[in-house]
TrEMBL record:
Homodimer. Its cofactor is pyridoxal 5'-phosphate. Belongs to the class-I pyridoxal-phosphate-dependent aminotransferase family. Residues 60-413 form the Aminotransferase class I/classII large domain. The keyword Transferase applies. One of its GO terms (molecular function) is transaminase activity. Keywords: Aminotransferase, Pyridoxal phosphate, Transferase. InterPro entries: Aminotransferase_I/II_large, Class-I_PLP-dep_aminotransf, PyrdxlP-dep_Trfase, PyrdxlP-dep_Trfase_major, PyrdxlP-dep_Trfase_small. It comes from the Bacteria. GO terms for biological process: alpha-amino acid metabolic process. This is PLP-dependent aminotransferase family protein.
Length: 423
């Protein structure tokens, strides 16, 4: 398994530039986000329908309640709201999360670590777990931000195929068998079981149990990333891998090999940068050490604001579900009506994304400037492939566009694809 960056378009250095490239750590030299940056810049054209960025709907941020919660927190806690606080996080928030993260199996606050965004959870999990050369299993496709957090620690990625129901368990079993035959045990598998970023797919209950069986059998940790789980708008809610594992251990949290991550970014507002990890105490203890070296503590005031907002969460989540359900339905209808034959797409039951697969002949990276000319942007699928591939795929985000924009954007996209197929 080689470690290959999917996108390599470096800015050429000008003569006389200090030798920065040689100074960078080998892990950071392996990272290159230039293509992504260029793509985001391209999508900044005014008037364009941007299905590219994975942004929540700003008009649904509970602005008034955030302002009131902020005032209340400052009045209640005074200077404590802006003082350093414990690395583990604000205790009332951890107590609430301990009770509510897995309703059927509450944990103790000692098993909860507050993080500065789910992105920090991934970064610090990488920091405490990955040695250079470790094998990591990632879904194909997967969240590019996770790969970006893991790559500087110089792992070898092994790509696990997915289908409509998430990870292909036969392929995973075969991969684990092959690696074991080479004497290799992957350090962890990174998975997003609910409304995955980028595909919008959900791992079925049966496969959740199989994933736990296999990872237990081979001694592989599971990093379960679940920022979208609350945003289900159709179908039945499924228990998290962490909750299923707690059932198996008789609620003994320290016997669970699942590290569960979630965040308030998609349910309240991402700028609050408030997220958490639930895991066995030895993992949490190491994360505390890693976080001390990263930012000492998450912003105290933000943790207090989020705690004040907890009573609002059920109605806020209901609003989000209703709105995203409407947007997803509108996008699916438009895709069904407009897309040329040969293009397939996923049907999400929640979250913010769906995934298009085009005929092999179409390169979605090469097509993007022409789509932008036609008034629509998307995220190219290659970005989500840790080991390359996916050139004929793309991610569409429906949470950040109005209903009419969705119709307009999908029509522009369909026309761009049609022209591309006729080239
Ligand atoms: C799967 C996944 N994990 C983690 C994150 C990081 O989110 P945040 O840092 O805002 O909590 C994102 C953001 O889009 C995501 O899609």
């Amino acid at each position: 398994m080689s470690l290959s960056a999917p996108i390599q378009t470096r800015r050429p250095s000008s003569p006389g530039t200090p030798p920065f490239e040689a100074a960078f750590s080998a892990g950071m030299r392996d990272l290159d986000g230039t293509a992504l940056r260029d793509m985001l810049r391209l999508a900044q054209v005014p008037g364009i329908v941007n299905f590219g960025g994975g942004l929540p709907a700003p008009e649904l941020f509970p602005m008034q309640q955030i302002a009131q919660a902020s005032t209340r927190a400052l009045e209640k806690y005074g200077w404590r709201a802006v003082q350093y606080s414990t690395t583990e996080g604000f205790l009332p928030l951890r107590e609430w999360l301990a009770e509510h993260t897995h309703l059927a199996s509450p944990v103790t606050p000692d098993h909860i670590q507050i993080m500065t965004g789910g992105q920090q959870s991934l970064d610090l999990i990488a920091k405490i777990l990955i040695d250079p050369g470790d094998t990591l299993l990632v879904e194909t496709p997967t969240y590019m931000g996770a790969v970006q957090s893991f790559r500087p620690y110089r792992p070898n990625f092994a790509a696990v195929p997915t289908d409509e129901q998430g990870i292909d368990m036969d392929a995973l079993a075969a991969l684990l068998r092959d690696l074991a035959a080479q004497g290799r045990t992957p350090k962890f598998i990174y998975t997003i079981p609910n409304f995955q970023n980028p595909t919008g797919r959900t791992l079925s209950l049966e496969r959740r149990q199989l994933l736990l069986d296999l990872t237990e059998q081979y001694g592989v940790l599971v990093v379960e990333d679940d920022p979208y789980g609350q945003l289900r708008f159709s179908g039945e809610s499924l228990p998290s891998l962490a909750a299923l594992m707690l059932e198996r251990t008789g609620d003994d949290t320290d016997q669970s090999h699942v590290i569960y991550c979630s965040s308030f970014s998609k349910t309240l507002a991402p700028g609050l940068r408030d997220a958490w990890v639930q895991a066995a105490a030895p993992i949490i203890d190491r994360l505390v050490l890693a976080k001390q070296g990263a930012d000492m503590c998450s912003p105290t005031l933000n943790q207090m604001i989020v705690t004040e907002l907890l009573p609002l969460l059920p109605s806020q989540i209901a609003r989000l579900r209703e709105s995203y359900a409407g947007r997803a339905e509108r996008m699916l209808r438009a895709l069904g009506r407009e897309l040329p034959s040969g293009v397939t797409y996923t049907v999400p039951q929640g979250g913010m994304f769906l995934w298009l697969t085009l005929p092999e002949a179409v390169d979605t990276a090469a097509m993007l400037p022409r789509a932008v000319e036609n008034g629509v942007a998307y995220m190219i699928g290659a970005c989500f492939h840790a080991l390359g591939g996916g050139h004929h795929t793309m991610r569409l985000c429906y949470s950040n566009a109005g209903l009419e924009q969705i119709d307009q954007g999908v029509a522009a996209l369909a026309q761009t694809i049609q022209t591309e197929l006729e080239r």
